Amino acid sequence: MGLDQLVALVNRLQSACSLLGDNASSGGDGSLPSLWNALPQVVVIGGQSSGKSSVLESVVGRDFLPRGSGIVTRRPLVLQLIKTDGGNDRAEFLHLKGEVFQDFDAVREEIEDETRRSLGPSKAVSPEPIQLTVHSKNVPTLTLVDMPGLTKIPIEGQPKSIVQDIDNMVMDFVKGDNVIILAVSPANADIATSDAIRMARTVDPDGDRTIGVLTKLDIMDRGTNALDILDGRSCVLKHGWVGVVNRSQADINGKVDMKKARAQEEKFFKDSEYAHLKNVGTTNLSNKVVNHLEQAILRQLPQIQSYLNDSVIDLHRELEDLGVHIPSDRGAMLHMVLELCRTFEREFADLLDGGRGGGESILEAFEQKLVQNIRNLPFKELYSLKNVAQIINEADGYQPHLIAPEMGYRRLIESGLGLLKGPSERCVEEVHGILRGLVESAIHECKDLTRYPTLRAEMQRVAYASLEAKKEETRRMVTIMVEMESSYLTAEFFRRVVSAQMAGSNAGPEALNIRTLNGVPVSAATEGAPPEELHLRRITAHVSAYVAAVCDQLKTTVPKAVVHSLVLSSKKELLKSWNMQVAGMGLDSLQRLLSEDEAVMKRRTDCSNRLELLQQAAGEIAAATAQMGLQYGR
User: Most buried residue, 56, 116, 513, 543, by most Cβ within 10 Å?
Assistant: First the structure.
């Protein structure tokens, strides 16, 4: 394989780039690796009426580009030239796959028509390129990108932004380090004002990528010439200038063909002060550009291969993160939804069994918050001597008690036990809040769910609803547990309380363990009490010890109820009922659940297309370099 075949390979890869939307105008946010930017290419720039189109037609040897006043080239034209061994010249557009043009007047018309179709009446220019391939025995194998002509002021009918729009577009195409800039400037104008040189020096200040093309040498003012520029004494470029003479407007109007025009150009240089120069003529320009491109391709191949390999790896990783495409049949979709449900439930269970935020937070709700909330209850106010006397009197009514105020005892105990509903229910709410937080964390941890916002939202809604139902069930359970304590007072325990209190200083170890709400052994609760308060203090100590025992019991039984009815139930069957509903869903409902975020779908498609392009390019370049016997190290 020769260097010309490498150029042809680059041509094919550029065509593939255009088909898949990878070009200088489609970089977007630059998040996708671009093969277009990695490939060496030649971009032709120049001001309006600089002779840029005539240069391209002269290289091709055909009259095929639109002409007129103002901005004629309104979209970039990617012109791929392929040298053939013979046969008729032919042209093909990438947007008209399979249609072959042999009439180059029809090629010009199609360029104009496609430009109008894409731009419509409202847009002046567009960065989306038209791609044209020309097969001919008279052309070098080469790709040139023809840009809209640079301008300084808008003319009538053009938007005010046209100057900046074209500048920005051209800048996007020439700023890449692999772009060879063909800067076309007319010799009959001050080179210091050249739009092409201005743009080239902006992006290539050292001139490493710029070749100057000097047109209209034949219509310079009498007595002037461009020898200083072509000899490298003025407006110096590292890769020099090439002077060309194109057809005049009279030649174009007179239908002078390219063969005759080329002969006229050769005669002009032979008979002029430029005769001694080697850097004049369209043939020399074509050869210079081809040689420059071939050397650029050869020089850049190792970097291109390395870039492609790294980019393929990166795209594979991103596609793995984005996930697989959604299946189309109901069975596979059902399996996917249920598997995502199981993944969420596993993540929820793992978080629940984990440390901070999970099991540790629930334990804190039991051992600290529940205990503290019970301790903060207003037992001191409830069991003050004044309040105890009032409740006993109200309980006695018109019939005072004879020995022990049993009805008063019951009311005092029931009032104290009634206060326990609040902490018990708050404990349920606290654990419910922790579980809701775990649902949110589990949803966030399930990265696959980010692809399906509808399923994610529905799964979170169902999980919250399930927790809410289990919370209400648990709340009823702990409320009943408190009410049960009020409904039936344990007489045997109460008798032990009375016995312990009566034992006084002679109380044994068991009696000493029976304590009031403030932690004082019931046997010592009335020590030092004035005689007139002794009766009420004794009643208060009995009631307080009984309520304290129930509090201690609920500190154990409420957590058990919460764990059984709320925590373990949620861990085992948070989505159980919904899984059964999902199993009965039809195709439409499953498709709705698995509807993806449009940005994710677009990103996956873009990555897949770009990966296909880069893999194809990597394979073709590897095969080409192997065939040439070139050895490159990364």
Answer: 543
115 near 76, Cβ under 8 Å?
Answer: no
pLDDT of residue 402: 44
**Mean predicted lDDT score pLDDT of the chain:** 84
Cα 150 from Cα 45, distance rounded (Å): 8
Predicted local confidence at residue 126, as pLDDT? 87
In 3D space, the residue among 368, 365, 409 whose CA is nearest the CA of residue 391 turns out to be: 409
What is the per-residue pLDDT for 430?
Answer: 93
User: Cβ contacts of residue 285 below 8 Å, gap of 6+?
Assistant: 55, 59, 213, 242, 244
Greatest mean pLDDT among 166-180, 490-504, 519-533: 166-180
The half-sphere exposure of 546 on its side-chain side, counting CA atoms within 13 A, is 30
Place of tokens 């005769």: 275
Whether the predicted pLDDT of 404 surpasses 90: no
How much is the pLDDT for 87? 87
Give the tokens for residue 251.
Answer: 């030649």
222: left (phi over 0), alpha (psi -120 to 50) or beta: beta
Helix extents (H) in 397-530? 406-418, 421-445, 453-487, 491-503, 509-512
Report if pTM > 0.70.
no
Residue 236 CB partners (closer than 8 Å, separation 6+):
none
Token readout for 486 is 């009020």
Q: Strands 77-83 and 142-146: what pairing?
A: antiparallel
SS3 call for 479: helix
Helix axes 330-353, 421-445, angle to 10 degrees: 130
> What local confidence, expressed as pLDDT, does residue 18 receive?
66
Answer whether residue 187 shows pLDDT above 90: yes
Under DSSP, is residue 585 helix (H, G, I), strand (E, B) or coil?
coil
Let me know if 499 is exposed, middle or buried by CB neighbors in 10 A (0-12, 13-18, 19+).
middle
pLDDT for res 528: 72
Rounded to 5, what percent of the chain is helix, strand, coil? Answer: 60, 10, 30
Considering all CA atoms of the chain, what is the largest pairwise distance in Å, rounded to the nearest integer? Answer: 145
Mean pLDDT of 343-365: 86
Question: Measured between alpha carbons, how far is 555 from 240 in angstroms, rounded to an integer?
Answer: 92
Supply 66's token pair.
């639109």
**Residue 89 CB partners (closer than 8 Å, separation 6+):** 62, 102, 104, 134, 135, 136, 137, 138
Q: Parallel, antiparallel, or unpaired: how do β-strands 77-83 and 210-215 relate?
A: unpaired
Q: What is the pLDDT of residue 222?
A: 86
- Is 60 exceeded by the pLDDT of residue 19? yes
